[in-house]
Each structure stands twice: as structure tokens, then as C-alpha cells.
């Protein structure tokens, strides 16, 4: 039996204040109960509905009017991928997070869902009895709901500014957009952050780090980097679990029309191909004699992530010194900022994606506000800038 809690809402619109309303859609009563308890423990979100099928979600969406939906892929009556476009047709600004177990089929479906308008995906553990897997699922899901929901409200506030209050006293705003730890408060706008000059050293390698929103951003970016990939190694760390990175590498190969694959421990790093950190392993670079090689690391998570961007960025300095160009794309948290600082200190350069084009301006925002970026650019301008820098432009 499904349970729905109808709050005061305006159908088809998103609220700018109050807790984020989350609709859970999953045919597993265990998963629905687990997620409901986690959301109920957070001050800035609430369970708007707990439903068993995609059909229930579509039929009840107008009444429930959630801000965020956690949508399972495999369900009776109407599966998640089929429900997704119907939900977005009814409420185009609904934040939908696809949830699935780690199978190749579900990974493919999750990528398809992203192309149809899902905001993000999250892998569900095979068994919630495994404490570590459940803890990671808990942490990642709450952070995705919080950050993606907060971004939705900021966009809604810009699109529909509130009417001036009748009283001259300022209107108190809900603290939802500034959640308590561990989520950081929203960073200043990318337009207000200063930049530093690009390095005078010619880049010999391109390093890219990304997280939430990264798959779409990466597939767009690599379509413009053919000339760079042909002449220089390109190494990418995307926060993503096993199986999903396998599928992402295949998509990157199709988008770039260049070889792209999960990196293999000990393989040489050469121009002409894209190396992607495999899910569940950190990707570093080291030297074997005079040649750079991949070194995969099964150590603990860094910045709550595995793979993480910082290990790649920092390890590359011993190989290429200051001849590094790094790009930090959309993503939650601050991964890449510390490694980016090390790259700049060694003489290299950092480019960050701007806030407006990022799904979440966490990672690029952290780098920007640390003062390490030579440029903060919209996604559609990063490829051209990278091409110019590798062609000799230093401005």
C-alpha cells in the first residue's frame, strides 16, 4: 500500500521555502522504508510520498507536487524509464534521481535516463544488510537530494523573483538553501570570483575531474577535443561506481571518436586515447623508467569518493611537473581543489566550469573560490579554450 502526504503546494510549481518535498518511488518496501527514515531525520527535507510503482507516481504527481523524486528503474506496471518522461511532462522542473542496482543493463538505462532529463542517478546496494554499502548509499543520496533541490530553488528564485513585501522589514528566508554540515553553504557566484594568469609552461597532458552532472558534461566536452586527444594524453576521473564507468568509457569513445577505456594498472600513458578512472579504484600516474604509466590504487575513499580527483591531479605533478592543464567540471563537494592547488603551485593551470552551466557548482566552485583558476567558463566555451591553450595560446 502506498502512502502519500499532501502538503500545501501549488501544482506544477516549486516552493522556494520550507523543507524539500521528496517522492520515493520503489517497489521494495525495505528500500522505501530505509529512504523514508533517512529523509525524516534531515531538517531540510520531508517525505512527500512513498509509492510502489511508476504509474502511481504519474497519477498522483499533481496532488503530491514534490520537489525531488527518487525513482527506481525496475518496477511493476510502469518502470522508471517509462515513468520519467511522463513525470517531466507534468512537472518540467521536477528533480529526478534514478536509483538502480549495479548491473550493466541498469547502468545503460541510467545513462538513457540522463539523456531524457533525469538530474542524476544513484546505485543501490545489492543488500542493505552490508553496513558500509548502506552508509555510502545513505550519504550520497541525501547529498544529491540536498544539492540538486537547492539548485532548483535558486533557479526558481532567479526566474520568479518574489514580490516586494508590504512591510519595509526584510522577509525571513528559510535556511533550506544553506543546509547544515556536512553540506557546505552555497558558494559565491562564479561571476564574482577573480582569476589568475594562465601558466607560461606549455601543457603536455589534460586532466579532467567531474561528479554530479559530469557524464553529460564530459560527453559534450570531448566532442570538441579531437585535436588535443590526438597529440596529448587525456585522463579523466568521474565519481562513478564500477560498471557505470565501463559504460561511460564507451559513451566517451563514441562522442570523441577516439579510443576511450577504463585505465588498466601498469599500462603506458600515451597520446591518442582517453584514460578513465575505473569505478572503485583511484587512478594515479607514475613513471616506469622514462615513461608515464597508470597506477590504480585500492586505498580508502578520498573526499568520500573512490575514484577521487585529487589523487590523479597530485600524482601527475611528479610526471609532468608544471606542464599540466586541469579542468574541474560540475560536481558536489570540493574534490579536485587540493590537487588543483598543487598543480598551480607546480606551475600548471586550472579551468573550472562556471556556476550557470553546472548541475552542481560544488567542485568547480571550491576551486574558483580557492583562487586557483585561470578561467571560469561555461561548459560550451571550455573545449575551445583548451584547444587554444594546447595550440600555444597562453592568454
Automatic annotation (TrEMBL):
Gene Ontology terms: biological process: chemotaxis
Residues covered by the CheB-type methylesterase domain: 197-386
Molecular function via GO: phosphorelay response regulator activity; protein-glutamate methylesterase activity; protein-glutamine glutaminase activity
Its EC number(s): 3.1.1.61, 3.5.1.44
PROSITE patterns xrefs: CHEB, RESPONSE_REGULATORY
PTM notes: Phosphorylated by CheA. Phosphorylation of the N-terminal regulatory domain activates the methylesterase activity.
Residues where 4-aspartylphosphate is found: 72
Region (Disordered): 159-197
Main location: cytoplasm
UniProt keyword annotation of rRNA-binding present: no
Subcellular compartments: Cytoplasm
Keyword ATP-binding: no
InterPro entries: CheB-like, CheB_C, CheY-like_superfamily, Sig_transdc_resp-reg_Me-estase, Sig_transdc_resp-reg_receiver
Domain notes for this protein: Contains a C-terminal catalytic domain, and an N-terminal region which modulates catalytic activity.
Annotated protein name in UniProt: Protein-glutamate methylesterase/protein-glutamine glutaminase
The species this protein was found in: Bradyrhizobium yuanmingense
Taxon lineage: Bacteria, Pseudomonadati, Pseudomonadota, Alphaproteobacteria, Hyphomicrobiales
Amino acid at each position: 500500500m502506498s502512502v502519500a502526504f499532501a502538503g500545501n503546494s501549488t501544482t506544477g510549481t516549486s516552493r522556494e521555502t520550507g523543507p524539500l518535498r521528496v517522492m520515493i518511488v520503489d517497489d521494495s518496501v525495505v528500500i522505501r522504508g530505509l529512504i523514508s527514515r533517512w529523509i525524516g531525520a534531515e531538517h531540510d527535507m520531508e517525505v512527500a510520498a512513498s509509492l510502489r510503482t511508476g504509474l502511481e507516481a504519474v497519477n498522483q504527481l499533481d496532488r503530491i507536487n514534490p520537489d525531488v523524486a527518487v525513482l527506481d528503474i525496475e518496477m511493476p506496471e510502469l518502470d522508471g524509464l517509462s515513468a520519467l518522461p511522463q513525470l517531466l511532462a507534468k512537472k518540467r522542473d521536477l528533480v529526478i534521481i534514478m536509483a538502480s542496482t549495479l548491473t550493466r543493463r541498469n547502468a545503460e538505462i541510467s545513462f538513457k535516463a540522463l539523456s531524457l532529463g533525469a538530474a542524476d542517478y544513484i546505485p543501490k546496494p545489492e543488500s542493505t544488510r552490508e553496513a558500509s554499502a548502506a552508509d555510502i548509499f545513505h550519504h550520497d543520496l541525501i547529498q544529491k537530494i540536498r544539492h540538486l533541490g537547492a539548485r532548483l530553488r535558486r533557479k526558481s528564485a532567479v526566474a520568479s523573483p518574489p514580490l516586494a513585501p508590504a512591510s519595509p522589514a526584510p522577509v525571513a528566508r528559510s535556511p533550506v538553501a544553506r543546509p547544515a554540515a556536512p553540506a557546505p553553504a552555497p558558494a559565491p557566484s562564479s561571476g564574482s570570483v577573480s582569476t589568475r594568469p594562465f601558466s607560461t609552461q606549455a601543457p603536455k597532458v589534460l586532466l579532467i575531474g567531474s561528479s554530479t552532472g559530469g557524464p553529460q558534461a564530459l560527453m559534450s566536452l570531448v566532442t570538441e577535443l579531437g585535436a588535443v586527444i590526438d597529440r596529448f594524453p587525456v585522463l579523466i576521473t568521474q565519481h562513478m561506481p564500477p560498471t557505470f564507468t565501463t559504460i561511460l568509457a564507451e559513451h566517451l569513445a563514441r562522442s570523441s571518436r577516439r579510443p576511450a577505456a577504463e585505465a588498466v594498472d601498469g599500462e603506458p600513458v600515451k597520446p591518442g586515447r582517453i584514460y578513465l578512472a575505473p569505478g572503485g579504484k583511484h587512478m594515479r600516474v607514475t613513471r616506469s623508467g622514462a615513461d608515464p604509466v597508470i597506477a590504480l590504487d585500492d586505498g580508502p575513499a578520498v573526499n568520500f569518493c573512490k575514484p577521487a580527483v585529487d589523487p590523479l591531479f597530485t600524482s601527475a605533478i611528479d610526471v609532468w611537473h608544471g606542464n599540466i592543464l586541469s579542468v574541474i567540471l560540475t560536481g558536489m563537494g570540493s574534490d579536485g581543489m587540493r590537487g588543483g592547488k598543487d598543480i598551480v603551485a607546480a606551475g600548471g593551470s586550472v579551468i573550472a566550469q562556471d556556476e550557470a552551466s553546472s548541475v552542481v557548482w560544488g567542485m568547480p566552485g571550491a576551486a574558483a573560490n580557492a583562487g586557483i583558476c585561470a578561467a571560469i567558463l561555461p561548459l560550451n566555451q571550455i573545449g575551445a579554450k583548451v584547444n587554444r591553450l594546447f595550440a600555444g595560446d597562453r592568454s
